[in-house]
């Protein structure tokens, strides 16, 4: 070790995090003393989390065992001597010193050594000095082999993870973020489930580490992953039956249509057989939904294991710079997903994000050939069999704007209060706000925009926007000959009431009750 690196490392370790520190013990949050308040505020933007709080917490801080009693019992029954080993892959760019070191210590402290082949750290062209020589030296102390690779240029999470996967030797790849802390018993369930079925991807329960005080709060175990019409990952509540099943069996894995993407385990050979990551995607964003569609449609499965808890620092925004505008990068990645995997349902995405239709999204032939080679199922199969409770209807009659014949205004949910009437506004074209005017008349006779549906009551006294619930109050017919939208239980017609839409007695001659459904199928 050269003297400069030694001096740097000495300074970096001169914080409470590397000495005995009671702050944050047992997952508690940290209260910042008054004399550090200004420093706390000025340094928050470094990583968009409280760096000062992190530096007050030991890199070896204690955490409770967050598992349920059922999980502790089931975990004790796993024969770990016969399980394969995992290579843990962590990519980072300008990560804070104490958070990445705490990540490594938590893995080392709470993982059976014989289940970890190595930890592969991929530095995505950081410019912070602590992520160069000091990190290379510090990781030598761990019993687990830790390999650090410094990329010569900015590659983004997707390509950095691919680099890490190529280096990894273990039969299981376990992708983690660089600002996490694992808790007791986290590793065994993930490896065990992948070992039982090589076509299975398994993710942990993601606990929240506060970006303000680094306090732990356990993640809900009654959620599964889905997606929105703009292909963003979204958490969904389980329905009643699944909730009851979970209450009865708190150690059972939860089938999930999508995963959050930051943390998951997969068989190494299967990862490559299924096309790894889409190398045509840039930086990060959308890759988790793409791999979710691909795994399910091509014969695999995904689940969340309630007995595996990993804490993650959630931030309201990324502190890192992109060579291109962040939303452009994400939308481009999502457009690639839509074009390759969604068949005719890609129109849901492109209607919501019209700017994506004109994007240059790169060559798709390799990914389309992959889909053909793997003999993957249609996206309609995925919606019906895997994600039937997602907000995208597998059967629909129309998709697009609902335009009134009288004045050409469009039904709009933008800025409307839940439980209030839908608005009527100037029709928007080729703009992101167009998404508020995209509606689908579904096979279930809903008039739906994402998870919002038009609704009335038996008396037809009002028209309002509500969360879709499948009730008769949310079913409508469309008279193709006249253009009336008729509420099924009241028999009343949707009516233009100037700034809002309402329902009223049907009168064939009233232009206020004549509508065009954009994208209406024959």
Automatic annotation (TrEMBL):
SUPFAM superfamilies, A to Z: Nucleotide-diphospho-sugar transferases, Ricin B-like lectins
Membrane association type: Single-pass type II membrane protein
Pfam family, one: Ricin_B_lectin
Keywords (A to Z) from UniProt: Disulfide bond, Glycoprotein, Glycosyltransferase, Golgi apparatus, Lectin, Manganese, Membrane, Metal-binding, Signal-anchor, Transferase, Transmembrane, Transmembrane helix
Pathway: Protein modification; protein glycosylation
Entry-linked CDD domains: pp-GalNAc-T
PANTHER family on file: N-ACETYLGALACTOSAMINYLTRANSFERASE, POLYPEPTIDE N-ACETYLGALACTOSAMINYLTRANSFERASE 5
Protein name: Polypeptide N-acetylgalactosaminyltransferase
Organism lineage string: Eukaryota, Metazoa, Ecdysozoa, Nematoda, Chromadorea
């Amino acid at each position: 070790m050269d003297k400069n690196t030694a001096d740097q490392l000495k300074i970096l370790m001169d914080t409470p995090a590397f000495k005995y520190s009671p702050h944050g013990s047992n997952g508690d949050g940290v209260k910042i003393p008054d004399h550090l308040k200004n420093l706390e505020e000025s340094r928050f933007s470094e990583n968009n989390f409280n760096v000062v709080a992190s530096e007050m917490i030991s890199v070896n801080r204690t955490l409770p065992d967050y598992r349920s009693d059922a999980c502790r019992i089931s975990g004790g029954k796993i024969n770990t001597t016969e399980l394969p080993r995992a290579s843990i892959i962590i990519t980072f760019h300008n990560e804070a010193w104490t958070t990445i070191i705490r990540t490594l210590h938590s893995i080392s402290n709470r993982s059976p050594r014989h289940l970890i082949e190595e930890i592969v750290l991929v530095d995505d062209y950081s410019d912070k000095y602590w992520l160069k020589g000091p990190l290379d030296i510090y990781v030598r102390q761990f019993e687990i082999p830790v390999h650090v690779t410094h990329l010569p240029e900015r590659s983004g999470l997707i390509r950095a993870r691919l680099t890490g996967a190529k280096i990894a030797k273990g039969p299981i790849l376990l992708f983690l973020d660089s600002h996490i802390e694992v808790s007791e018993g986290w590793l065994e369930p993930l490896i065990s489930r992948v070992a039982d079925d090589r076509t299975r991807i398994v993710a942990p329960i993601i606990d929240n580490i506060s970006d303000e005080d680094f306090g732990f709060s356990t993640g809900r175990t009654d959620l599964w992953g889905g997606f929105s019409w703009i292909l963003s990952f979204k958490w969904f509540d389980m329905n009643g039956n699944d909730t009851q099943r979970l209450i009865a069996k708190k150690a059972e894995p939860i089938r999930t249509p999508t995963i959050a993407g930051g943390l998951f385990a997969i068989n190494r050979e299967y990862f490559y057989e299924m096309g790894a990551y889409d190398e045509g995607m840039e930086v990060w964003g959308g890759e988790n939904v793409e791999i979710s569609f691909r795994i399910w449609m091509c014969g695999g499965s995904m689940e969340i294991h309630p007995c595996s808890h990993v804490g993650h620092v959630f931030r309201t925004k990324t502190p890192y710079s992109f060579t291109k505008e962040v939303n452009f990068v994400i939308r481009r990645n999502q457009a690639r997903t839509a074009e390759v995997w969604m068949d005719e349902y890609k129109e849901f995405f492109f209607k919501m994000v019209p700017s994506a239709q004109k994007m240059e999204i790169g060559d798709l032939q390799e990914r389309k050939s992959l889909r053909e080679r793997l003999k993957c199922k249609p996206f309609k199969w995925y919606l019906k069999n895997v994600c039937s409770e997602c907000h995208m209807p597998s059967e629909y009659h129309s998709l697009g704007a609902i335009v009134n014949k009288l004045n050409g205004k469009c039904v709009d949910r933008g800025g409307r209060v839940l439980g209030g009437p839908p608005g009527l506004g100037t029709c928007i074209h080729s703009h992101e706000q167009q998404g508020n005017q995209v509606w689908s008349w579904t096979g279930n006779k809903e008039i739906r925009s994402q998870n919002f549906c038009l609704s009335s009551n038996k008396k037809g006294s009002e028209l309002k926007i509500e969360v879709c619930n499948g009730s008769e109050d949310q079913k409508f017919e469309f008279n193709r000959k006249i253009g009336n939208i008729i509420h099924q239980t009241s028999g009343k017609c949707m009516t233009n009431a100037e700034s809002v839409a309402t329902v009223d007695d049907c009168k064939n001659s009233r232009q206020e009750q004549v509508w065009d459904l954009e994208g209406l199928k024959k």
